[in-house]
Structures are given as structure tokens and as C-alpha cells.
């Protein structure tokens, strides 16, 4: 593995005490889409089942009146002597009725998450916590922090007093973030304030340690401060709300242990497909430009020629009145077709009249040939 940057290790008084190597997991690619997806599913795994009572809205004797009474067919409360009788029941549109599709406790509350995807999300969140711009963009106050990631001497794990913990955070410039979290404490809006969720507070620093020699008791009572063992890193703490860039305070033992946790047993640390994603910079670099062929001249193009006798567009370019002439010719054709129908109808009527007249003559000649000379009213001359 190539040499990685060194990270400063600070003493409990805020002075630089040494250096350590940046863990390889801190160079993992940032995948906010994976982090958001895994966080959403992980956050569902602490839900408790809830449902309405099975008989809610149905504890009444009601039946439909049927048709023929000019009222809705919804079940109605029977009996009399009270305003409740005759009122609709059971339906979700009725007062006192059940809800639509009553909730059930056998809903699928929890979500299974791909192990590799979960590891990828944690690696991305760890890498984002080492980028000061993302930490500041998340809202943490790190103006006085000397370096990110912030690593303290392993002796911080044996701190047992909260007063000593405050002095340590003041020495390294992390107290501003704690005070910001403390000032953000507000009463929750809504009914959660009645359900043991009375206050809301912003997240402060996340203190990560390797062994609990009293550090939990020292830091846990500071507002906004959370603690986590490096063996049990949790995405819900590394990326609260699915947003990468949590301000983390590491002990040196915890930071050095990351290479063991994320590199043992043949586990592969996520790496980006491209070390440098700036394609324009790569293509225009001297190394690539020196070996590629020179750009070929663009082929000469010629305007496409169209036959105006076949192409209406080409004809309109030559004759501005071509479209008008075409419309007039079409109108004349339509008029001819309309007149043709009238002429045919007239000819057929004349032909029918001639045939009828000719048939009358033939009928007369047939009668005359049988009776001899014909007088009026069918009398014959002897």
C-alpha cells in the first residue's frame, strides 16, 4: 500500500504529542446515496409495533336498512329512545366508526440490509468525517480545532471526571460545538413532548475510544456529546439523519485499530474506480497528449440537395407561393368531387325517368296487340 498522510496526535493539554498514519478506510469513496439508503433502513430497525384495537368502532349493534327507504345503505344503529339510534356505524365515514384499513401489528417493521452495503456506508461516513469542509457543512463548530480528524492521546480513555473532560475539549477547541448543542435544546413541537421525548437537541462531537476506562462516565453528561467504541461503530451515529460529516474525536488506540477492523480476514476496503475524477485535467495532461494521435480535420460537409418536384420543403424554398397554389389545387379538386356527385345523381335520375317512360310504352303496346284497336276506357272496335 502506498504511503498515506500522517495525522497529528494531541495531548490532553492540546499540545502536539506525535503522529500516526491515516487509516486506509479514511480514503474510501464518498457515497451519500449508499449512506442515505442504509441509514433509512437501519433507522427502521428500532420501531415498535403499533395498531388500533381490533374491535374499535365495531362495538355497537348495527345493520343496514337495505334499499327502498331513500337513505344510504350504511349499517345503522338499531333501537330507539336515543339520538344514537338510526345513526350510521362501522364505516370509516361514520362518526364513531372504525378507521379505513385498520393498522395491524404484523406489518413488516424491520428491514434487512446487505452486509457489504452496510460496511460500505460506514466506510464512507468515516472518510467524510476526515474532510473539514463536510464537517463544517454539517453544522459543526470546528473553527478552533487544530486538525481534522482530531486524534487525542490514548490517555483520554482513562478520564473519569466530567470537569476534566470539559478541560480537554476546551484545550483542543471542541467546546464550541458542545456549547452549540447545549444552546439548541428546545421543547419538542407536537405530542412527543408527552411521550418521554420532551426536548430536542443538535448533535455534538462523537468521541470514539478503544477501551472504556472511565471515558464513558466522563463525557456522557455533556450536551450533544455521544460516545462509541471503535469495535461497534454505528452509522446512525457516524451520519445522523443520513448526512455525512460527523465531527469525531478519536483516541489514538481507536484510530490505529481501524486498519485491523477494516483490513483483516481478506476484507477489501472500498476504493474509487478512478483516483482522479477530473477527466478534462487527465485528457489535457502532457502525458496523455504526448502519445495520442493529432486531431483529424473535420470532414467537409455539403448541403443536401432535394428534388423540388418531390419535396414540398424544397419547392417552397424556390417558390414562395407554392403552398398557396397547392391549397388552391386541393380546393379545386374537392369542388370537382362535390360537383361530380351532383352530376351523377342528376344523370341517374334522368335515366330512371326514361326507363319508366319506356316501360309504360311497352306495356301499352302489349295491351294494344292483344285487343286490336283500343278506344277510351279499354273499349275495342269490332
Shape from CA axes? Answer: flat
Give me the oligomer status.
single chain
The percentage of residues in β strands lies in 5-15%
The parts where pLDDT drops under 50 for at least 5 residues are none
Number of helices: 12
Number of strands: 10
Q: For the largest beta sheet, what order do the strands appear in spatially?
A: 2-1-5-10-8-9
Termini, distance in Å? 143 Å
Mean pLDDT: 92
N-to-C SSE string, H for helix and E for strand: EEHEEHHEHHEEEHEHEHHHHH
Helix content: 25-40%
> Major beta sheet, specifics?
6 strands, mixed
Gyration radius from CA atoms, angstroms: 46 Å
Pfam families: Ribos_L4_asso_C (PF14374), Ribosomal_L4 (PF00573)
Protein name: 50S ribosomal protein L4
Keywords: Ribonucleoprotein, Ribosomal protein
Domain Large ribosomal subunit protein uL4 C-terminal: 266-338
Task: Report on the architecture of this protein.
The protein is flat and about 150 Å long. The protein contains twelve helices and ten strands. Helix 1 crosses helix 2 (115-128). It has 382 residues and is an alpha/beta fold. The longest helix has 50 residues, at 322-371. It has helices spanning 32-43, 115-128, 132-137, 162-171, 175-183, 215-219, 235-238, 252-261, 279-283, 286-289, 312-318, 322-371; strands at 6-10, 16-21, 62-63, 76-77, 150-152, 186-187, 199-200, 206-209, 226-229, 248-251. 36% of the residues lie in helices and 9% in strands. The termini are far apart. Strand 1 (6-10) and strand 2 (16-21) form a beta hairpin. It has a six-stranded mixed beta sheet. Strands 3-4 form a two-stranded antiparallel ribbon. Strands 6-7 form a two-stranded antiparallel sheet.
